[in-house]
Amino acid sequence: MIEYLSRSKQHTELYLTQFGIEECIPSHFFGPAIRSHFLLHYILDGEGIFEVDGNKYRLQKGQGFLICPAVITYYQADSKSPWSYCWFGFDGTLAELLLKQAGLTRVCPILNCGKDDMIYKYLKLMAESNGNHKTRESRLIGLLYLLLSLLAEYGPVTPIEQQESRAEIYVEKVKEIVETTFAQKITIEDIARIIGLNRSYLCSLFKQQMNTSIQDYLIRIRVQKACEMMGNVELTIGDISRSVGYNDPLLFSKIFKKIKGVSPKHYRAETH
């Protein structure tokens, strides 16, 4: 059983490209070849080999292997006890980070989970969602998140990787909050409270990762959104100002000019 899926236009952060299950014949192989997305195989029974970057791994039931995009790999079922496996193909801006939380990277591509009952359950739920046309895409992505969270729960993560992953997650949360609440009177204290971290610690993390402060990032997002609104002739500068979180048009104009070098009025005249 295999199903291929069209690329999601709405969910760019994480989406499925395919999933399936196969009982391989003895010595069945694939490659050497590359893939355009992440592909995670989980062995339900039997054994085989997986080769990547000059390394050869002999794997069996309860283990799995990750294929990263644009990386040459080769895998082959055992001649006497060929494996059967299920697989999940996926991609998106968060895919690499979520895999890293589970300890899975190009350098560490082997999965040791032993949760084949749950992994197979998610595969079945994906297949059974076929009749839910209106909600299927969201349901599949939800199941993929559950699968990756399961792997993160049981996968080994070194303290260094864990620290790096947490920092990246916090930064992504800040960016997500800013980009969804920029029109409101959101403060750094509000953002820290939503995430559940100390304000100073969060600001330090963000500065290290992004080389800018949260406040400056918020301002630049607001100005960026304002620029996007300039093309709508029905909106006055005051309308745009309020739409990006500034009730005072004069303050908005001052901040806009500091970032763009010209006033909002002149920017609109020059670009639209």
TrEMBL record:
Residue stretches making up the HTH araC/xylS-type domain: 172-270
InterPro entries on file: AraC-bd, Homeodomain-like_sf, HTH-like, HTH_AraC, HTH_AraC-typ_CS, Tscrpt_reg_AraC-type_HTH
Matching PROSITE patterns: HTH_ARAC_FAMILY_1, HTH_ARAC_FAMILY_2
GO molecular function, one term: DNA-binding transcription factor activity
SUPFAM superfamilies, alphabetized: Homeodomain-like, Regulatory protein AraC
Record keywords: DNA-binding, Transcription, Transcription regulation
PANTHER family (alphabetical): ARAC-FAMILY TRANSCRIPTIONAL REGULATOR, MMSAB OPERON REGULATORY PROTEIN
Protein name: AraC-like DNA-binding protein
